[in-house]
Amino acid sequence: MSRQCALAAQKANRILGCIKRSVPSRAREGILPLYSTLVRPHLEYCVQLWSPQQKKDMDVLEGVQRRATKMIRMLEYLSYEDRLRELGLFNLEKRRLQGDLIAAFQYLKGAYRKDGEGLFTRVCSDRTRGKGCKLKKGRFRLDIRKKFFTLRVVKQWKTLPREAVAAPSLAVFKARLDGALSNLV
Question: 131 in the Ramachandran plot: left (φ > 0), alpha (ψ -120 to 50) or beta?
Answer without folding.
Answer: alpha
